[in-house]
Amino acid sequence: MTYRLVCRTLLIALVTLGTSGVASLAVAEEEKSAQQTIRERISERVPGLTITGVRPSPAAGLYEVVTSTGETIYATETGEYLLTGDMLQLTETGIANVSEAGRSDRRVETLQAFGDEGLITYPAKGQQKAEVAVFTDIDCPYCRKLHDEMERMNAHGITVHYYGFPRSGPNTPSFAKYESVWCADDQQSAMDAAKQGRNVESLSCENPVGEQFELGGEVGVTGTPAIVLEDGDMVRGYVPADELARRLGLL
């Protein structure tokens, strides 16, 4: 290849890359404009709805709108039309729930950002093979049933991190009970006693129960127990320890 031909080839390549870059920038600007339009239009028309994020969805022409409650809705680029419900995708292996996959990713990000400070943790016995986040209510019957399986979960190598989610909300007896457990010198013993229906000493201290309760709303907890796996998938309700272990690939 001659020197002149090499230069010409390089010039064509640079022009092509430049054109591609300009096109990509234009697309990015269009998406940014659409996202802002959607956010402003929905906020104006539905003032009680707090939007935490807007981004293009996998389906062309639709944008994913995430609210402060963890719910996902879809909007056209003008924000004029809204869709609710899960987005499903036909794949070679069947039907995939695109919306739930997105929620799972956001749960992982949200829990990681929150951190593990202030959790009541029951560590795995021996080698830890998995860990789960459990949003729990001390007075919830199925939460107590799950707690009865704690030793077996730990024996399977599962570490359980408890997040407070008293369903009755702040300033209620159930909420105060969780705060008392958290403020106890021996949190595990106090939790065990409370889960068995025994009285625990009423205590008050600075605690993160309120923050954990709000976190539950952010990740989509609607009932207890709510078990969040490491991949962000949520198991809603009670499951036996062996079934949970199988779901985690431990059996």
Summarize the structure.
The protein is of the alpha+beta class. It has eight helices and eleven strands.
Describe the structure using short key phrases:
five-stranded mixed sheet; 8 helices; four-stranded antiparallel sheet; alpha+beta; globular; 2 domains; Glutaredoxin; Nuclear Transport Factor 2, Chain: A; 11 strands; 251 residues
> What's the total number of strands?
11
Adjacency order of strands in the biggest sheet = 7-9-8-10-11
Shape: globular
Mean pLDDT: 89
Q: Cα-atom Rg, whole angstroms?
A: 24 Å
Which CATH architecture of the largest domain?
Answer: 3-Layer(aba) Sandwich
> How many strands, which pairing sense, and closed or not: the largest β-sheet?
5 strands, mixed
Q: Level of helix content?
A: 40-55%
CATH superfamily grouping of the largest domain: Glutaredoxin
The fraction of residues in strands falls at 15-25%
CATH fold node name of the largest domain:
Glutaredoxin
Structural class: alpha+beta
- SSE string, helices as H and strands as E: HEEEEEEHEEHHEHHHEEH
CATH class of the largest domain: Alpha Beta
Quickly count the helices: 8
Unreliable residue stretches: none
Count of structural domains: 2
Distance separating the two termini: 62 Å
